[in-house]
Amino acid sequence: MSNLYGGSDHMKVLHVDDDRDILWLAKKYLEKEDDRLEIETAESAEEALELLNQKDFDLVISDYAMPNINGLEFLQKLREKSDIPFILFTGKGREEVAMKALNLGADRYLRKSHDVETQYKMLAEDVVQLVHLHQAEEDLKRSQERLELALKGARAGLWDWFLDTGKCVYNEQYAKMLGYSLDELQPSIKETWRNLCHPDDAEKSDRVFHEHLAGERDIYECELRMKHKNGQWIWVRDRGQVVEWDDEGNPIRISGTHVDITDKKKAENALRRKTEEQDLLLNSSPTQIWYLKDINTYGAVNEAHARFVGVPKEQLEYSKLDDFLSDKEAEICKIGNRRVFQSGKQIHTEEWLRNSKGEKRLIAITKTPKLDSEGKVKYVVCSGHDITERKRARDSLRRSKEKYRTIVSSMQDSIFVYDDNNVHVDYYVSDKSQLVAPPDEFMGKAIDDILPIEVANEYIECMNRVRETGEVETFDYPLRIDGKVRWFSSRISQHENGEDIISVVREITERKNAENKLQFQSHILNSIDDTVITVDLSGKITYVNKAFANLVAMSPNELIGKPVEVFVGRTGMQGIQQNILETALSQGKWEGEVLNYDNKGRKHLLRSRIQILRDDVGNPLGLVATSTEVPEHQQERKRRQLLHQLLSHEVANKSQIIQSSLELLESGNIDNKQRIFLNKAKQAVEEVGRVIDMIRELRDMKTEELQAIPINSLVKGVTKRKQALAQEKQITIETQFPKNNLKVRGGLLLEPLLS
């Protein structure tokens, strides 16, 4: 047997008994009686409490007589934290046990019997009934909680009217909405509501209410005004429905809600006033305005359009176009209408239509689609301006300009004319390859429909400034034509008629490319470590890069125009004037080393490559030199600077102190022996001074100034000068020279070194 009691919900049951055989038997019978039951067992109340903490169960079955904690004590502990259905199932209980169990919160009390099959059948029925009842109570509780939350969230007042007694029950929100407490709304009868309801709305409410009671309306619903405690009237949406009838089918109870819709009513009134104002403005406007429901059906129209057609506004609205227009005119209008309904995009058209007097007038019409959430056209708003006179004046102007079109076509410039709406009205172009689109695609269209939006916006801003100031505006802009970027310069001015704008456009792609190339090259030249300098044929500097400016410790602006000999040594200058120029002219370049001076007179040895600069026909314009400072020369200069510092601040100062001290000592009383020593000391100091002078001179000397010196004669001279000193010191000097006259490369320091 399975699922005898209907339903299909799975139910988990915890059976507690200290008799393991009873637990086994009950599990077998109960799960056999109803396959929705899943029985889990526990042999003590302690074990059961632990299982209840770990798992979810739908019902508990418990024996009464158990060690440590009996069934009633177990129930009492369980009820402290749970309302789970509980059946006390025992064979030893008495009447007072049953009463205690029910008082403690047991849902059923069953005694075990000898008819095992019958008792477990009854137990299974009780389990299923209790679980279903508990689930229903939980569902109702959750439903009530959701209702309370919904009413609270909607700030709805709840009313309950018992028709047989006339009593009304309100919730706190109902009273709060009107500024009262519940106690202040007593007695809760219909007259209390009627006293608060606006007199003009009470009759309507009664009528709708009785129609609902008579079954003519599914629900009672009415918007009415009720008086707030502060004396103001608030708008309320009152909704209700019969929820209870007597045995004869007569309604005896109706429940409903009050929702404050004062803000909604204020918004509706504001919207209505705004709509009325817009209607007034639309009907006062000289611009014709109407909207289309489809390509051949009017929606609303304003007075200006109705006057033009010659039909009363009310008659024209929601009628067919071909009811009032000729077949030809209606077809012309439908062509534009069809375009905007199919494309979903705004269009501008000019259509010749007859007015109420039968006159043909040119109407400039803008047709703007209004789309729904899916992007489909709901309706199209149209606005029309009579431009007949403007068209005639424009045609006259165009005819006069035709005389000059041939002359203008021979110019390099292109000319475009725009009206006060920035629409192309005329053009003169000598080279149509400069056009971003063919004339038939841009004539009659606004500039922002043709040019890229960034360029169009810049154009429009310039045009607006020209209209405001009357001053000429110019700006450069790029356009991509046939896949290539081309640059143009526009000169924008106001037409002599005071309305149109003229743009004179010239292509400047070559100039822009040259400027960009020059800027790029300049960036490269200023990024390299090598120095770059150009001079004209007179020797004046025409360009330097940052590396050269840093080398000579001057800014580029200070160097331009200065003669190059200011920075080049005499030997180098002679090379530039004679050898370099001749070599560059004959061979195309000159390479070598040049000695340069910076702004502070310091020397820089440069390894240079100098080439001739020529114009387009090959005539020489000047020289360009790229140079790298010789690393050896840089190190040599640093060594000379360090040596100069040591001589100036250390050795020279100490020698001066010694010299002064010896002079002071000589002026005193000294004997001959002391004077001999004093003279030797003075000679040594003077020798040091000569060495310092030679080193200073060597600091400013080029490495190329070293020369070949005969070592034999140099050593002999030094030996001869030092012979007396050697004898005094009892030193014997012996020399041995090669047979050939040996020479060594050296300079001024070689002799002091040997000395």
Describe the protein.
The protein has six domains: 11-144, 3-Layer(aba) Sandwich (Rossmann fold); 154-267, Beta-Lactamase; 285-386, 2-Layer Sandwich (Beta-Lactamase), CATH 3.30.450.20; 395-514, Beta-Lactamase; 526-629, PAS domain (Beta-Lactamase, 2-Layer Sandwich); 706-755, no CATH class. It contains 24 helices and 27 strands. β19 (484-494) and β20 (501-507) form a beta hairpin. α1 crosses α5 (116-153), α3 (71-79) packs parallel to α4 (95-104) and α20 (631-666) packs antiparallel against α21 (672-699). The model is unreliable at 570-575 (pLDDT under 50).
Structure keywords:
Beta-Lactamase, flat, Rossmann fold, 44% helix, 24 helices, 6 domains, 755 residues, 26% strand, 5-stranded parallel beta sheet, alpha+beta
